[in-house]
Amino acid sequence: MDYYQFISDIIDQKQGKLTEASDQIWDFCETRYQEHRSAEVLCKVLEEEGFSVQRSAGEIETAFVGTYGKGAPIIAILGEFDALSGMSQVAGVTFKEPLQEGANGHGCGHNLLGAGSLGAAVAVRHYLERSGLPGTIRYYGCPAEEGGGGKAYMARAGLFKDVDAAFTWHPWDENLAYNSRMLATCQIQFTFRGNSSHASASPHLGRSALDAVGLMNAGANYLREHLISEARLHYAITDAGGHSPNVVQAKASVLYKLRAPRMSQVKEMIQRVCDIASGAAMMTGTRVEHQVDGASADLIPNFTLSRVMHQCFTELGGAAFTEDEQRFARGIQDSFSAEEKRIVRNGGGRILSEQLQPYSEEQGYVYASTDVGDVSWIVPTGQVYVTTCAYGTQPHSWQLVAQGKSSAAHKGMLLAGKVLAASAIHVLQHPAVIAAAKSELKEQLDGEVYQSLIPPEVQPAASRAV
């Protein structure tokens, strides 16, 4: 049986259902651990397609696992569906216009990611039924990739422990089989508590939590000089203590995001940043509490699986885009900054990338983070990037949100589903590939054992007040 044609036909037949699911999730634009409606959209399609669905997987309300088949090997398809706060944007326009000022939006294309992965799982399910091939396909509904570390919590709950290989994808501005590492990260909320007082009549009686936040940030800025060059240290003041300058602020909070190539390096950074926070509290006579807010392991690419995915992508080819789709994408590029337009020029002036990028045997490095990393420490994990937006579109931008319901985005989403499905079927048919992928992962880990940066007592949360 020609499985390329078979899965392409299945996904084309399900095109309306998959596109509707993606667009509904775009409309809901729910952020970390609040994706109840988005998760239910995907769960219902899985059930309609014959999957048994475990909701609240790992005791995480918006996580779920859809399963079809029986026995080994067990292949996982990873899906995401969370949005970003403050990214509201009207779809289908080439200018910035929030749907609702300050509201959420899909600035990373996870509406497409979740639906494309869903298409892959459905196609593999139908192939297993038709071919009689042994094995199990699972769709993992993974919440809170954006800062919440959903897969880390799912990994901690043991949801991936019996999986033989995992596949996923991400919406992007070109087509390629991914073989780069990504940074480990940990997000920590620091809350300082002092004493309020009249800032003019009795300032000596006050102990300013806001001063403590300021001193902590100053200390962290000095720390940057003494971190390895690949490390990153970001912060956002989440509570400045109020809006009255004549009050000594008794409570203030700052959220830190730490990144480094390895989890062990992030652990060292955590200790140093916590020491700085303690010093700021001592200097201001305040108290400080800290709480891990989310974390992700460094991503370990698997060349064995990425070669398979590149081969499958080559067989399927890239999407062909119409003149109207190119015109809309060009309008998006016209809205770019001068620096972003320079990226487009350096890329040959592409509008929408149709070609598959050459495969590289050299391991790259991307200075970003993903909780796919936590899965990649446990299970050999392959990933592709697929064109869904104008070349040069930056993630977490209004331009990406504006393209999230476009026909070009839908084409890329459906193509991604086909590549993932073909890759899953390939390894189901060739157990030796799975064995080689596992051997490669063992070699890359070199004796290291996965241990999440999230402490055991910390539970998933949409937001924290500490």
TrEMBL record:
InterPro entries: Amidohydrolase, Aminobenzoyl-glu_utiliz_pB, Bact_exopeptidase_dim_dom, Peptidase_M20, Peptidase_M20/M20A_hydrolases. Transmembrane segments: none annotated. It holds the Pfam family Peptidase_M20. It comes from the Bacteria. NCBIfam families: amidohydrolases. This is Amidohydrolase. It comes from Paenibacillus odorifer. The lineage of its organism: Bacteria, Bacillati, Bacillota, Bacilli, Bacillales.
